[in-house]
Give the backbone structure.
Amino acid sequence: FFGTLVPVVLLIILSAINNKVLNYDNFWLPFMGVVVLMFTALFYAIRASKAAIQNQIIFAVLIAVCLGYGSVMQINSGFDKSPTELFVTSVVGKYITYGRSNSYHLVIIDWANHSRRKNVRVGSYFYKRTKIGSDVDVHLRRGFLNVPYFYVTK
């Protein structure tokens, strides 16, 4: 159980930290393909077991969905050779959400639609050294699977 769960959780965390997806339109087809492939492999692997099959199917679906999301996000950014589009935008706010761990957010003016604002999660160091009113760089990439994503730098 833990031998499968730990890599999956790490893959999800890595994908959530590194990928700020702009648009999920092209995400769903490769995601569903990976989910079906992984569920099929896991289902045939657990079918021989004598334990309660219902719990194992639930576990297989959960693992397949997590692997689908994480692997598609990593493939999309890891194999991406598209040129970076650079946009300069302003920080108009910042806030911290408190919980089990603190999350640091910058509120920036949307680079594509200047009348909208976008909340972006950033690391604590970047958050602390970024002032309201300062400019940040938004790096937009197309993605290997055409799932556009971006990251923010100073």
About this structure: Residues 53-78 form the longest helix (26 residues). The radius of gyration is 19 Å.
